[in-house]
Amino acid sequence: MDKKRIIIALSIAAVLIPAFCLVPCRWPIGLVGMLLFAGFGTWEFYGLLNAGGITVSKKWGTASGLILVASTWFNMLGQHESYRGFSISDTALWCILLLVIVSNFFRILAYPNLRKGLDSCMGTILGIIYVPLLWSFVVRLFLIGNLNDPGWAAFYVILCMKMADSGGYFFGTRFGKHKMAPVISPKKSWEGLVGGVVFCAAVNIVWLIVFQGRINSAISFSLGHALVLSVLFPVVGTLGDLVESLFKRAVDVKDSNSMVYGLGGILDMIDSILFAAPMLYIYIEFFLK
To answer: Looking at the predicted structure, is the pLDDT value of residue 260 above 60?
Structure first.
């Protein structure tokens, strides 16, 4: 096992965990953090596409994505009466999403080479959907409870996914023999997925006990829901990992960035969260409300 990678990961956790647990989610620093992750992740994804010879509008696409994430933040504020003066409506949010997508279609008209313009449009829109749109569900979870509390629901999904990733890494390196997707990600194994479920279940049970059956002040869940989510998180997260691995394999790039030793870039850190956050949000809307 790579001890240096583990130490770096624990150091990052030592910074992020207190930030999530102590800072009220209504503070603007939360929005800044959400925009930074979305911005760097989108920029890295466009870098992957460029490495594969796909022309994209990096600045336009990243800016469009940041507008979408910020709009989601202010839309969620509208669910709290004391902040409605600073919010935007659901209709306005959908209009912003529509304008973001349509503006990228219109940019095709500026390209003298029509095929290059078509490739750029498709790649740019793919980046907006893959990173900012999926990341906007982390924003939704962050602001779904009492604004005077920390963003417990967002912290919950991130903690579950990081522990599932750790369980997958631990079980995979020690016991991994049966490859899950050897063409896309040779190191992924079914044993690693089992390890992810085990670690995620442990986190869910501890969370259930410590927070007395609540994800945050607005959402309660039972042992049954905790066990279901303990399976869903690693499965959906693994699929998210495989999606990013497919992108990297297609353009022959090892990591989205080399920002952090052993962990790659921002996109490598959040790839599983991008799919787990929408899953949890949908699960809450259908089963926990």
So the answer is: no
